[in-house]
Design a protein that fits this description.
The protein is α/β, with parallel strands linked by helices. The protein has 2 domains: 198 residues, Rossmann fold (3-Layer(aba) Sandwich), CATH 3.40.50; 104 residues, UDP-galactose 4-epimerase, domain 1 (Alpha-Beta Complex), CATH 3.90.25.10. It is 39% helix and 16% strand. The longest helix is centred in the first third of the chain and has 22 residues. The radius of gyration is 19 Å and the shape is globular.
């Protein structure tokens, strides 16, 4: 089997590459290394079944030859984070929407067996029900969420119209080793781990009682693999841990002092996936508990030494546009 992972040098993508190589696949990676790092796959350097192409999915002519002879496509490449998507919407639209168009067109031309798309639970916005089902109303709150949703719509539409065999997986709060260390203010784990290394307090938004469906990255990689190998097509599945955990609990597990910063507009008090559909259809269920996942991360905490150390002042500056544009919504 030949598999292609767009964004394969990134956080989740590199773990999917590991899973595919473990299963005996020949793996091709496309990554422009904007946020992904080739070093995330350094441990696979000697593996002759892995080939990395440093290309941008926005350049269809450049990436199209890489799809030749591919059986499975895992489309992970995307720009993430809320604030930059507000500041640079075209970058997000061109990558997450037009880039996805290029990927599905290349996949269609290559007559692949299955394409699995990394959708985002941010499409639900602030849901009415928890745990949240796939049938919940779509309410994107900011450009990142919108562009990931439009990418998902594109993938599903190519399945509907052109018969491209696709599955989309809506991911909830993925964490684990190799998560991004870029200079962008973003995911809570990267922020807290850099603060712990620097001996600084954790900057907790609001009361810290808000809960998140923290899902460990190897469980997510397994979900992508199982989706690719199933006979199911043109379906959307939530991928979550089976629980929801407070930010205060996360701080307890990582260990450190806390300071509080203002609650932000457009963020839900809870994220919690209803995973009954994927459990019943694919037989997938998360295995790694939050406690186990945090322990694995702490054993590998040096990875985050180069990540920026955020303070209340720098966070306030970085999120100014967040409050400016979303504050009245």
């Amino acid at each position: 089997m030949v598999s292609l992972v767009t964004g394969g040098c990134g956080f989740i993508g590199s773990h999917i590459v590991d899973k595919l190589l473990e299963e005996g696949h020949e793996v091709r990676v496309i990554d422009n290394c904007t946020t992904g790092r080739i070093s995330n796959l350094d441990h696979q350097k000697a593996n002759t079944k892995l080939t990395i192409y440093q290309k941008d999915i926005r350049d269809k002519e450049s990436i199209e030859p890489v799809f030749k002879g591919v059986d499975f496509v895992f489309h992970m490449a995307a720009l993430a984070d809320i604030v930059p998507s507000i500041q640079k919407p075209w970058e997000y639209y061109s990558s997450n929407v037009l880039g996805t168009y290029n990927v599905v067109e290349c996949a269609r031309s290559a007559d692949i067996k299955k394409l699995v798309y990394a959708a985002s639970s941010s499409c639900y916005g602030i849901p009415d029900e928890y745990p949240t089902k796939e049938s919940a109303e779509i309410r994107p709150q900011y450009p990142y969420a919108l562009t990931k949703r439009l990418g998902e719509e594109t993938v599903l539409h190519w399945g509907q119209v052109y018969g491209l065999p696709v599955i989309t997986l809506r991911l909830f709060n993925v964490y684990g080793t190799r998560s991004r260390t870029s200079g962008t203010y973003g995911a809570v784990f990267g922020v807290f781990l850099a603060q712990k290394l620097a001996g600084e307090p954790f900057t907790v938004v609001g009361t810290g009682e808000q809960t998140r469906d923290f899902t460990y990255v190897t469980d997510v990689a397994n979900a992508f693999y199982m989706a690719s190998q199933s006979d199911i097509v043109n379906q959307t599945f939530n991928v979550g841990s089976g629980g929801t955990y407070s930010v205060n609990r996360l701080c307890e597990l990582i260990g450190g002092d806390i300071i509080h910063i203002p609650k932000r507009p457009g963020e839900p008090d809870c994220t919690y996936a209803d995973t009954s559909k994927i459990e019943q259809s694919l037989g997938w269920k998360a295995k790694v508990s939050l406690e186990e996942g945090v322990n694995i991360i702490l054993e590998n905490i040096d990875y985050w030494r180069e990540a920026p150390v955020w303070t209340p002042k720098t966070i306030d500056d970085a999120t100014a546009d967040w409050f400016k544009y979303l504050g009245d919504n």
